Amino acid sequence: MSLLIREARVITGEPVEIARGWVHLADGVVREAGAGDPPPSVVSAVTDVVDAQEMAGAGALVTPGLVDIHTHGGGGSAFEDPDAAAAVDRILGVHAAHGVTRLVASLVSAAPIDLEQTIGALSAAARPGLLGIHLEGPCLDIDHRGAHDPRALRDPVRLDVDRLTAAGRLVQITIAPELPGALDLIRSFAAAGVRVAVGHTGADAATTREAIAAGATLLTHAFNAMPPLHHRAPGPVGVALADEAMTLELIADGTHVDPSLFAPLFRAAPGRIALVSDAMAAAGVGDGAFRLGGLDVTVADGVARLSGTDTIAGSTLTLDRAVRGVAAAGVPLAQAVAAATRVPARAVGRDQLGLLEKGCRADAVVWTRGLEPVAVWRDGIRLF
Asked: How far, in whole angstroms, is CA 43 from its chain's centroid?
């Protein structure tokens, strides 16, 4: 299939913006993108033409497909569900309707044997949109565990890197670096090609720097489940902002982080903010009773909390809403789009995703002027 999307504002995800342009997708990759009218050679080569303004109205926008590297579920399903294939299909479908073409399946803390089994089941249920698995735990600080079951937490010395990496496509793990043996564990996972994130931690600045030196390159949901930024004790956030090697996740739902901080955060770490949903099963469903790992969660007014507590338990956010939220807070749109495309893709080593440039994967989204997705393609195939 060869597709031409034309008559649109185009953001490639670098961020580079074309006021009026076009994108040519064929054989699962981006063939070309340009400004103005497409050349006759492109028009004659395509089998399908989409006029973005006819589809989405005046001010139509085309961006790369969104990439969510921290997602626990959606549509009533979680990645820990017994029927892994059904859960993957449902969750991918729910998030695709919101512009997400690729995502990483995040698992909450559990016994290592259970994590191995879930990694294996999800890997066996591989789909084009599933980039791999993120273990958010179990080596987390108990005092910053958030919505993780304290019974599931483990010391780093009890985690077998070889077994977990052999179980399936493990791409990312969150570790509290102050735990005994954590720095050695970070080195081992980094050496195995797994991206390591600092998170759910009480680490001070010095320990965070040691974690980065050991191979950590991400900060799991910045500001949440970690010490606050303080002028004499910068902690994980301050260190991550200052270190060009670090990508900072941001849950831009207005609950996890106040919207007044969105724009300053982008200015402090240009090109290093990755929007994530941290979505749990309630995303795309609504309020009600759910489970996160082994714990009960109540969702009210779109906010998920551990039942009977004030502890936030993931989110009901979708990544399109995160883009709208940071743009409304004053972040330039091209930067907001890059934070949901190119930046997270690069953070997990997928350089052919998140860009509308020649040779990159043919993942694209057409949006309205109000930033509502109306059409989504993955590998050049229409999803929504």
From this structure: 35
In the chain, what are the domains?
Answer: 2-64+355-382 (2.30.40.10), 66-347 (3.20.20.140)
278 is catalytic: yes
28 vs 17: CA distance, rounded Å:
22
* Distance (Å) of CA 308 to CA 9, 12, 83, 314, 317: 46, 44, 29, 15, 21
Active-site residue, selected from the candidate residues 81, 141, 243, 278: 278
Q: What is the largest CA-CA distance in the chain?
A: 64
User: CB atoms < 10 A from the CB of 213, how many?
Assistant: 13
> Residue 139, Cα to own-chain centre: how many angstroms?
21
Please state whether the peptide bond connecting residue 138 to the residue before it is cis, i.e. omega within 30 degrees of 0. Answer: yes
Residue 15 confidence (pLDDT) above 80: no
Share of the chain above pLDDT 70, in %: 100
CA distances from 292 to 73, 74, 295 (A): 9, 11, 5
Q: pLDDT tens-digit profile of 64-111?
A: 999 999 999 999 999 999 999 999 999 999 999 999 999 999 999 999
Quote the CA–CA distance of 163 and 153 in Å, as a whole number. 18
Report the helix count and the strand count for the chain, using DSSP H and E: 12, 21
Task: Please state the φ and ψ torsions of residue 141, each to the nearest 5 degrees.
Answer: -75, 125
The Cα–Cα gap between 197 and 177 comes to 9
Tens digit of each residue's pLDDT (9 = 90 or more) over 209-231: 999 999 999 999 999 999 999 99
**Strand runs (DSSP E) across 96-166, as ranges?**
100-108, 130-136
Torsion of the alpha carbons at 353, 267, 331 and 313, rounded to the nearest 10? 70
Phi, psi (deg, nearest 5) at residue 291:
-125, 145
303-306 vs 295-300, strand pairing mode: antiparallel
Q: Quick check: helix, strand or coil at residue 133? A: strand
Cα–Cα distance, 334 to 15 (Å, whole number): 5
pTM score: 0.97
Return the structure tokens found at 51.
């006029």
What would the pLDDT profile of 321-357 be if each residue is shown by its tens digit? 999 999 999 999 999 999 999 999 999 999 999 999 9
CA distance 49 to 274: 32
